[in-house]
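Form P-L/3: holo structure prediction, ligand glutathione.
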Amino acid sequence: MQLVSVKGSPYAARVRLAIYRKDLPVEIVFPPREGLKAPEFLALNPIGKIPVLVLDDGSTLPESNVILDYLEDVFPAPSLRPAVAELRAKARLLAQLGDVYVFAALGQLFRQVDPARRDAETVARGAAALGKSLGYVELHLGPGPFAVGEDYSLADCSLAPVLALADILARHLGLPDPFTTPKLAAYWAALQADPVTARVLAEIAEGMAKMLAK
Ligand SMILES: N[C@@H](CCC(=O)N[C@@H](CS)C(=O)NCC(=O)O)C(=O)O
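OUTPUT (holo model):
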């Protein structure tokens, strides 16, 4: 199997986190140089987005959450799905809070990365939206160290890249530390201290640094 991925993509990073965490036999490859809208890539994923999982029979699976579910089904151990129904629901909820609310705020900030076209009011609105959305995560985080408790789960695969982007964008835009509430601050520290997550956080930082330098 191959995962078509780029370092800075939070969607690809969540799948790499699961692959590294579960030590799966999946080769990580880059998209073609011609880009995501080139015929060679569109043949793999007509949506023109990464990540894409290429199965051994040549068939393809796009969409990060679908890929995560598929990998869990095919390689159930070690499991990233909490065993208890309530914790599984919490894991889905936390991943969704990141995907829907935190990403929306990050999108606003992302459009402000170019200093030549930056608007202070829009940045302030984006920062407020980010704070509000991270408040939802704070509310639902478990007792730690990871999102729903002691065991690393799919919620961590999804949230770690989202928080990494929040951290990188906040620094880039000169905003204050976004992780000052108690559970979120402890959670961000636990993610950074976890070696597998730290590997992916470094990959995201490398990919984003190249993008922000353009
Ligand atoms: N819903 C998709 C979103 C994937 C996505 O937006 N990927 C971005 C990279 S972070 C992409 O490929 N963007 C290229 C484009 O939209 O042209 C998923 O979960 O996999």
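COMMENT: The pocket of glutathione is lined by residues 9-11, 36, 48-51, 63-65 (CB under 6 Å).
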